[in-house]
Amino acid sequence: MAKKTVATLQTSSKRLTKAIKMVKSPKTGAYTFMESIMTPEEVDTFLKKK
């Protein structure tokens, strides 16, 4: 499961997007959230990674 946040962050030089991905731990089975701030073009590759 993955979710892209709607928040868009802007700095003086480029636009950034914050992406949040829900990852299931193979050891415990609990879900954790991974957050990353990146350019909008990199969001799809971040969400497809396991």
Report a brief summary of the structure:
The chain is mainly beta and 50 residues long.
Describe what this molecule looks like in 3D.
This protein is mainly β and 50 residues long. Helix content is 12%, strand content 54%. It contains 1 helix and 3 strands, in the order βββα. Strands 1-2-3 form a 3-stranded antiparallel beta sheet. It is elongated and about 40 Å long. The N and C termini lie close together (10 Å). The mean pLDDT is 80.
Q: Could you tell me how far the N terminus lies from the C terminus, measured between alpha carbons in angstroms?
A: 10 Å
Strand order of the largest sheet: 1-2-3
Number of strands: 3
What is the percentage of strand-forming residues? Answer: over 45%
**Which class best fits the helix and strand makeup?**
mainly beta
Features:
three-stranded antiparallel beta sheet, single chain, 3 strands, 50 residues, elongated, 12% helix, 1 helix, mainly beta
Task: Detail the topology: elements first, then pairings.
Blueprint: E1 2-10, E2 15-24, E3 31-38, H1 43-48
Antiparallel strand pairs: 1-2, 2-3
